[in-house]
Specification:
By secondary structure, the chain is of the alpha+beta class. 53% of the residues lie in helices and 16% in strands. The chain is built from 12 helices and 10 strands. The strands form 2 sheets. Strands 1, 2, 3, 4, 5, 6, 7 and 10 form an 8-stranded mixed beta sheet that branches. Helix 2 crosses helix 4 and helix 3 packs parallel to helix 5. It is globular and about 70 Å long. The N terminus is likely disordered.
Length: 361
Amino acid sequence: MPSLAEQTPPDGAVPSALRRDVRALEAQLLGGERSLHRREVAASAGVSLLSARKIWRALGFPNLGDADKAFTPNDEVALRRIIDLVRAGKLTEDAAISLTRAVGQMTDRIVVWQVEAMVEDLVAARGLSDAQARQELVTILPELVEPLQEMLVYAWRRQLAAGVQRMAVRAQSGLDASEEGRDGDEDDAPLPLARAVGFADLVSYTALSRRMNEKTLAQLVQRFENKCAEIISVGGGRLIKTIGDEVLYTAETPVAGAEISLALAQAFDDDELLPQARVSMVWGRILSRLGDIYGPTVNLAARLTALAEPGTVLVDDVTAASLADDDRYVCQPLPEQNIRGFGDVRPILLSRGRGTGLVLD
């Protein structure tokens, strides 16, 4: 029997086999057929439709009408679990919606990432077109759902354990270390978390992307993201986000931030396929919300990245002061520059002193 990718429906119609497989996959994922209206689910969970809609919007569900049969009994169970946390006083309604929004946004990105990765693999391994690969993926996914779900839960538990460790053991020590070289009048002084904040930005990415086809550009972006993620992870940092040719990361000490930053600059210097990177790192205090980070420290790091020469790392004077007595680093002051929002700032060129730096397996 030919695969779905080999079946060519007339006039662009969807093959009946594909429609059947999509329905079966949806039933597997949702736990049954869509048989319930939104008011039925809300009533069964014992909440108003308004409260239910707040949760569904936070999860990223589309707007649905009273006549739409869009839900299954699993939706009622999930809604009840969230509402029960509020009823029991374990979460406020605002906190429940915020946590739900985090799940909705992160899982949306995970799904898109995973689907694109599998489609790309099918195109490369089987010589299918993009459209054919997406149809073929429908037949492959049923046996991957459970392993992917188990990996998601496993990774979440590991990440939460790591977050608890950071929160309980190292938060205060980080704040204590952040006092070095500071007088308490800095713009970021009221913010709660002490972190090294870094940016890495590929040089000439825009010009390169204009000359590349879709496949080559995708490979470049993936290589960049993979290399950044590996170095940041080995250095004990956190990759906050990637935006095209730029990555934002944090570390819990100035030394960890310096090691990651120098390793990133060196890695792109050594890479034969990727261009060099401009890197910056600033030690200060930040606010962490909605999976992102905010504050003057973040803004200053972004500004310094734009000033850095390809293949170099820039820090500010406070960050340099925290590393001054460590012979693993050399800090070279550069001429003052007027930086928007910060006035006159003296960038410091951070270079490797003694030692070998991060070692990647």
